[in-house]
Amino acid sequence: MTLPLLPTLSTFFIVLSAVLVAIGWALVRKSKIEAHKKTMFAAAIAALTFFIIYMSRTIFAGNTAFGGPDDMKIYYTLFLIFHIILATTGAVFGLVTIWLGYKNRIKKHRKIGPVTSVIWFATAITGVMVYLLLYVLYEGGETTSVIKAILGT
Q1: Closest by CA position to 84, among listed 43, 127, 42
Q2: CA–CA dist 73, 56 (Å, integer)
Q3: Residues 63 and 144 sit within 8 Å (Cβ to Cβ)
Q4: What is the SS3 assignment for 78?
Q5: Is the four-CA dihedral 90, 19, 117, 48 of positive or negative sign?
Q6: Which of 112, 64, 71 is nearest to 89 (CA)?
Q7: pTM
Q8: pLDDT tens-digit readout, 71-103
Q9: CA-based Rg of the chain, rounded to a whole angstrom?
Q10: DSSP secondary structure string for all residues of 18-58
């Protein structure tokens, strides 16, 4: 089995971002604030790298439709929609959390940070599951526009 380069690379970066968020969370609990800031910045860069790779592939090549059994397609589609909503929410929360930290609004940053982290962990996990369903467990379907890939039309 040959894994596709760009989806594999983008999945690596989203997992890396989640691992860095976990490390950053551990660092701040140990009051290592400067290390926390650097680690969370690195997590943001990893997430941005994921996004750039993902969007570039989406724009220039398209998205891969689910290639598994037809009777599983509806479940995959619902799961994908859940992942997309989660990822979008996580990205917005992430930007707000980073901004609050950067602006030294620590009280709000501390309040929203753990929520953001949990959303981001769930996003990374569901993203890996989408990757496994598209490229590892089943052979990917047609690579086409985003709408066609999601709706299968």
Answers
A1: 127
A2: 25
A3: yes
A4: helix
A5: negative
A6: 112
A7: 0.88
A8: 999 999 999 999 999 999 999 999 999 999 999
A9: 17
A10: HHHHHHHHHHHHTT-HHHHHHHHHHHHHHHHHHHHHHHHHH
